[in-house]
Amino acid sequence: MKIVRLFTLSIAYGMFFAGNSSLYAQEQPEQQQGQYKHWSVSLKGGANRNESIGKLLNTKGFGGQFGIELERTFNPLWGLSASYTYLTYGDPVTKNGTSSEVTGIAHLNLLNLVDKYRRDCWQKWNVYGYIGGGLAFFHKMSAKGTTVSLPVGASVEYNVSPQLALALIGDRRWHSSNMGTPNGKLSVWTASVGLRLKFGNTRHVKNVALTDYEAVYLRSATQAYMAYEDANLKKELETNAGNIRRLQDELNQTKDQLNRTNEALNKTNSELEQLKNAGPAQKQGEKKQNPEAYWNGPASSVTQFSDNIWAFPIGRAEVSSVPEEILNVLKTQPETKIILVGHTDNSGPEALNEGLSLERAEAVKNLLIQHGIDAQRITTKGEGSSKPVASNDDAAGRRKNRRVDFILVTP
């Protein structure tokens, strides 16, 4: 009786609370999805019809029940709860025993599943199906003990305000054994009324139509994604700004290098222009050849001069052949003598070039001796780079300056 009176007071309080709260339809989804309330607590009480089914005896009886439930509703479609239910039994086998049942229950909002828009009058109603599992602790029965309890049922809720709902609940509970009948089972049908109090002053997720929740959730997800993209874009812009500054510094350095290179090029062009205007005789100490300068006798005895015979490799004195016309003169005119004058380009120190020019003249002398010319008829000299016949400004001119000149002298 105390339980009945307590439940009656709870119902009366709920009706009073509902009378002082404005009735509502489904509100528009004004707040963010994360601001919805999710917790609620409900009280329920009513009657049960129990069936004791065993091998020796089947009995039926009636009793009462009272329960409390704490629920976490995750979204308008489903939630999980922890429930405590106290039941009394009134059949000859159970001998007016009682049980305390602790179960975990999963709820599914069937109305939101069928009509997610919650149009018209459906906006105040919720219809749930649920299934659970837990333990039942039996007392004051022929045999005390603990069994498994499996409740399956449904409930219809009417939202009298955003914070309060009234419910009609029905379920069936299976127990793994009948504590009064050997090898038997206990099945209990229950019917009760309930009062649910939803925590929080803002909207509870139980009151939201599925489409509204999806819209808010999508908007929240979109805003979160946009914030993520903005953060990435900001980071990328900062990185790009750093790259631009670095490239600008490199560009400025490159400009400075180009300016220095242009200055050096302009200076070189200016020097080349001065050399060009000065005339061929003044290019890099270039001198007009005078064969008589190499002979102490009369000038009329110098019968032939050749100034472009071989182009030697850079820094080397190797030679492999002698012009046939030179050999023919020396072999047909035994009295004719020859002066070999070696030259280099302007690469390297002058002292080195003088020695290299004499080596080139000696190399030609040795080749003439191999062809049968008497060494007494051959004189060698080295002029280094002092007497170029072409400009040393380019490779072609320097190639002409790496040579040995022939001066033929007759008695």
Throw out a few tags for this protein.
single chain; 411 residues; alpha+beta; 60s Ribosomal Protein L30, Chain: A; 2 domains; 6 helices; 31% helix; 33% strand
Molecular structure report:
It is a single chain. With 411 residues, the protein is of the alpha+beta class. The chain folds into two domains: 2-24 and 35-219, Porin (Beta Barrel); 287-409, OmpA-like domain (60s Ribosomal Protein L30, Chain: A). Helices cover 31% and strands 33% of the residues. It is built from six helices and twelve strands. It has helices at residues 2-19, 110-114, 210-278, 324-332, 350-370, 395-401, and strands at residues 39-53, 58-75, 78-88, 98-109, 125-139, 145-161, 164-175, 185-198, 302-306, 337-342, 378-382, 404-409. An eight-stranded antiparallel beta barrel has the order 1-2-3-4-5-6-7-8.
